Amino acid sequence: MVANFLKSINTRLFIIPFAVLLVSFLCIGIAAYYFNYPYFAKDFYRLKLINAIKEKKAAPNILLGQYIKALSFISENANIRNDVKTIIDSTNPTSKKSADAKERLSKFINEMRTMTDHKMFALVSRDGIVVHSSREAVIGEDWSERDIFRKAAQGLRQTTFSGFADDKDFEIGMIFLSPVVDFSGELNAVLYFVVDEDKLSGLLKAEDGFYKTGNFYIVDKSGRIVLTKDGISLRKNKSLDINGEGFYYHFEEIENMPFRLAVVVDKEEIEKPLNALIPVYLFFIVFLMSVMIIQRFSAKRLIMTPLRKLTNALESVAKGNMKVDLGSSFSGELLDLRNAFDKAMKKISQLSGSMNVDEIVSEIEDY
Fold first, then answer.
1. How far apart are CA 297 and CA 304, in angstroms?
2. pTM (global) more than 0.70
3. Distance (Å, rounded) from C-alpha 316 to C-alpha 76?
């Protein structure tokens, strides 16, 4: 029984290296998937999103910087400051002097439109009254209680991006406030500009080669979306669910505005190339198992079967049967062994007719 067991072990030794490799590969794969895969996926998405958003945020910073520079040029122009002072100090808004100052102001600002991309402007006094505007409907209105104006105008010292005008405002676009100071440095009035958002929203479009589900947004501190690639979001309740499990997020501060740039990508798309490795891994496992099975049957056909035939033939000869046919299932070194066996049997047959048993044994030993 022990001999048969050892014989069985011996005939299967060739599959041990494959078995060890297969078991090791399975253990490594399972451990990597359950323990390291989530961290690897997280680091993979984070690195790519960080690189993408850092490249993306440079353009909005530059664009907003250009608008601020152009609008500052208007409010700091000496002639504009004189005209604004004339308009603000005038006790009669319909006087010729005031009307001429308003006309010069409008003309100069309109000439700058190619640089500012503004849709409308308004000249607002320190107490929040609109004294002049490209939209006559708002002239004379009190804006002192408007949040976007009141908060930004307090302590205003330079041209500032204030926020986004949406459906509750007079225009849809980006709001800039630019202070107009008198020659003593005191705030005289504020120029209110609504600038077309198309160029900024155009910068939020994802480049070719980025994730198909990838989107860039400008969001406020609470995560509410205020600008998309399609323009200003008019849905006040549209917010990014930063605690959601279906997406990956990353945020970056924008230098020239009190908002953040966000990139959002469907988690499934990011993990897709990583998940694609799983079928490859399984294929390799199946391949190893197939090799083991093929090797097992090949060894049985090419090695074990011929050896078994040779063993049975020797047992037949030991019983006196000299007519043994080993067949043709031999190759390589086993074929040489069969030829040697046939040669020995032929020699024994020749000697058996003319010699006694002792002579045959002696002849075989000499052979």
1. 10
2. no
3. 117
